[in-house]
Amino acid sequence: MPRTATLACAGLIWLTCATAAPPAPVPAKTGTFDERAALVIQAATADPAKLTGGNPMHFWIAQRYFELGETDKGLAIVKAGVKAGRSFIEKRVADKHENVGYNGFMYWAMLNCYSRWHHLFPKEVLDDYRYVFTTATNYKGTTGNLSLVHTLALFHADRIWGPENLPKDGRYGARGEGAVKWLHARLDATAKYGSGEFASRPYMLVNVGTLLMLDNDLVEKSLRRKAVMVYEMSLAHAAGTWLRGHWVVPAGRSYPDQLTQQPSGSAGMLWTYFGGVAPRLDAQSSAIFSAGEKFRPSPLIVRAATDRDKPYVCRSRFDGKKTFQTTFMNKTYGVFSTAVLPGGTLWPQTYPYGVMWEEPDATKASLLWLGVPIDDEKHLGYHTHGLNSRYIEYAQHRGSLLALAHNLDDGRNKYPYLLGFIPGGWKAVRNDSKTTGRVFLHYGSVLIALSASGAFEWDPRSGVRSGSPRPSDSEFRVEASHVAFGLETALPADFPGEIPEAQLDAFREAVAAKSKVALAKDGKSAAFTDRDGTRVERAFGGDTRVNGDRVEYEAWPLLDNPWMRQEYGGDLTITDGKTKRVYDVTNWTITESTTR
Description:
This protein folds into 3 domains: about 30-305; about 310-560; about 570-595, no CATH class. About 30% of the residues lie in helices and about 20% in strands. It is built from 13 helices and 27 strands. Helix 2 packs antiparallel against helix 3 (about 70-95), helix 9 packs parallel to helix 12 and helix 10 crosses helix 11 (about 285-295). By secondary structure, the chain is an alpha+beta fold. The strands form 5 sheets. The chain has a 12-stranded antiparallel sheet with strand order 16-12-9-8-7-6-5-23-24-25-26-27, with helices on one face.
């Protein structure tokens, strides 16, 4: 039976990593959860030779085999995976290595499988499990996600094999009642303020998918119920910024910054629930986790992730008290950015901000961005350029975005320029960068205008210095002490014309007539007036104003969009106008009521 967080049950997880190779083209896949899950499992089991137990997802495939009564197939995966872990640790012990342990993400997958299916395991497998989890001594967390993974692993090992059988070397994390207290605090923080590494393609799943590991009989009911509820709340936090494969929201610790609509990493988990363009489906896909779990979020959450009939704004503040995310969603595209208050910082390992749009052909990038990079070398390959927020700040109002780069040549900035990434694949283009400092692009599902505070040079044939897999992509660099860019967007249907060139020319005319970027002489402030007359101002390290009114970020809720509202530290309410669903983070209950 499918499980939802309406009751006190649910359950499990997986891990994901960055895609090293460029994605292959895939058709758009919609349908139901069951149809998508079937596609995932079919692809994952297409070549049994690849199910070596060496990837966390393989343990969810093993569980699927157990469910189907194909015990031998499931055991083959589990035996190989756990034996590899034991061999690795045995070598570390023999070498007297200071870190006696295995991959923390594998701990998660192994114990998840054990908690449900150990009654099918022969003595050899049970002995290997016992060796791994009573010999490993690397349970002390490092990154935020590994802190959770290691605590969960130790929590379960303590209860399965007994604390007296686990080594005591001082490198352990929380144990016993200390672990229970730590996990409750982690769940409280995730529910009230959002998950760690929110929207990170490699790591958000590890921060939230792992919570379902607490849904088993080893765990007391209060912790078990809370974990499932927080997992569903985390899906709700992501729903309003989902665009059929794109996750249109700022993301720290993410790669690549040359995104396609084909979801990767944690976004593959969301695709299983929400649909859209399918991820790469194979034996390592993160979608295996959600397909194998069969957890069903509330239909209200699914609607929030799929209803794109009208434009809307989603506001959030998931990355701390002084960072504020804005997403403007307009049917087939979205504009996104983060504003930072004085004293706030951004994780540098993020892709910069701009526009994502629908482009189901995964050989074509569909993210245009502007930023000051933390890395811009050829070795970068398919990884992120990052964002050096010491030198650039953003202000956004709906589909218009102002980027202000300040003091770029202060001598400390390794890359003293503003970098813009422009994907190929446009239907039409008008390049006025050398004359008026403007560029106009038609991508089929969005029109984009870039307006700079001065002329610059963009060569569409320049390619990407840091190794884009798509030769049609290009970039530009603006070297100056200070520079400002205004970015505005529109739907192609909003402008007349039978062909893309005609629509783009009409858009260009409207922008050229009214849009304006003004940069202060000292570079400490800038203003962008878009074609509709809306004026967005940003003072570097100071305030944002829209039409003269200060944006009071301090008063923002944790989340606000047409379907959801959650105050910072408060309850989450979701509604479709007929039904209201409330996640009470004090009493840890979920209630639904009819609104009319």
